[in-house]
């Protein structure tokens, strides 16, 4: 019986020595050079380790879209599909998948306007903040005027008859009182002046806290009004680009964004750069890889991740390769060889 089992196993090994591997997907999982026709990437590095352990020979067949590659797999033109293939409920109806070799997710890429000097100081020049400052100065001028009217006859050395100098000193006294600095260089001496000072002390306690809260709120809202998109709550009404066929299409629609479909991730990022769209939603590792290769474009990618999904190798439903490949994938994962491959391409992100 043992000899028979070994014979059957050896026969199966002989049957799968030559494989046609479909390849499709984006960098860094699939990197295709159209000039040299060469292929490399994370998915292919993992596959090549599997094939080496099994002594399988194979040839790659490149497709410019995952949908075309899946169609070829379904028609029996290839034996399996390698690339960043998301394992979704829809795809599982027609194909079998290996265990995930990488857990991906969707994320957002947008222009990082705050990376420039103007982006950092822009909130301080917002209309709301300028209005708040004007109200504050008007209030100080009013209190300064009241101090001058109350004190000019009783303390002319502190509050001269000249309105400009007198009101200016009154404003200085109002600022010192509000900030509780208490330099002692100026103080009201008349009853009216002390009443004004007392009322201003109470009012300034309320006003100062309200003013600080208002300025903080203004700066925060100004930051939100920036074109840097960091969360899905900013999607409504915004143009969001993604690749055709990506799970991101439904994600954008769900959060009321205006979906802009493109053929490649490069097209999407070009639209972002040219300000044709407000953001790009796609798989996180691909966006991180693009950002690392295009640092000058000031791309912002937040820590938020959505729609967790696994990448695996795809097979026809009648394929007998899956169990053997899963066993090797587990071994590679336990030995942290997959993690090392990931680090080579996208770093520790």
From TrEMBL:
GO MF assignments: ligand-gated monoatomic ion channel activity
Residues spanning the signal sequence: none
Pfam assignment, any one: SBP_bac_3
Localization annotation: Membrane
Transmembrane segments: 129-150, 199-224
Subcellular location, principal: membrane
Domain called Solute-binding protein family 3/N-terminal: residue spans: 18-349
InterPro entries: Ionotropic_Glu_rcpt, Iontro_rcpt_C, Solute-binding_3/MltF_N
Protein name: ABC transporter substrate-binding protein
Species this chain originates from: Cognaticolwellia beringensis
């Amino acid at each position: 019986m043992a000899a028979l089992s070994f014979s059957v196993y050896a026969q199966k090994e002989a049957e799968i020595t030559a494989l046609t591997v479909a390849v499709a997907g984006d960098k860094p999982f699939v990197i295709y050079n159209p000039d040299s026709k060469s292929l490399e990437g994370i998915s292919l590095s993992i596959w090549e380790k599997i094939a080496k352990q099994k002594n399988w020979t194979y040839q790659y067949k490149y497709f410019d879209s995952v949908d075309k590659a899946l169609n070829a797999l379904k028609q029996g033109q290839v034996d399996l599909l390698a690339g960043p293939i998301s394992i979704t409920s829809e795809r599982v109806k027609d194909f079998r998948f290996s265990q995930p070799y990488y857990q991906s997710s969707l994320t957002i890429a947008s222009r990082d306007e705050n990376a420039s000097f103007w982006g950092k100081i822009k909130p301080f020049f917002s209309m709301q903040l300028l209005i708040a400052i004007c109200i504050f100065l008007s209030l100080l001028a009013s209190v300064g005027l009241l101090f001058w009217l109350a004190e000019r006859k009783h303390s002319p050395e502190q509050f001269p008859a000249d309105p400009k100098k007198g009101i200016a000193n009154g404003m200085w006294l109002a600022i010192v009182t509000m900030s509780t600095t208490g330099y002692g260089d100026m103080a009201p001496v008349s009853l009216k002046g002390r009443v004004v000072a007392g009322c201003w002390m109470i009012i300034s306690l309320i006003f100062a806290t309200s003013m600080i809260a208002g300025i903080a709120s203004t700066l925060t809202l100004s930051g939100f009004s920036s074109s840097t998109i960091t969360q899905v709550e900013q999607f409504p009404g915004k143009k969001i680009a993604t690749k055709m066929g990506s799970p991101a299409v439904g994600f954008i629609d769900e959060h009321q964004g205006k979906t802009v479909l493109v053929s490649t991730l490069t097209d999407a990022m070009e639209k972002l750069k040219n300000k044709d769209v407000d953001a790009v939603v796609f798989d996180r590792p691909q966006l991180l890889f693009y950002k690392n290769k295009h640092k000058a474009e000031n791309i912002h990618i937040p820590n938020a991740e959505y729609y967790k999904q696994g990448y695996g190798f795809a097979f026809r439903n009648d394929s007998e390769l899956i169990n053997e490949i899963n066993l090797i994938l587990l071994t590679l994962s336990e030995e942290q060889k997959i993690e090392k491959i990931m680090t080579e391409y996208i770093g520790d992100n």
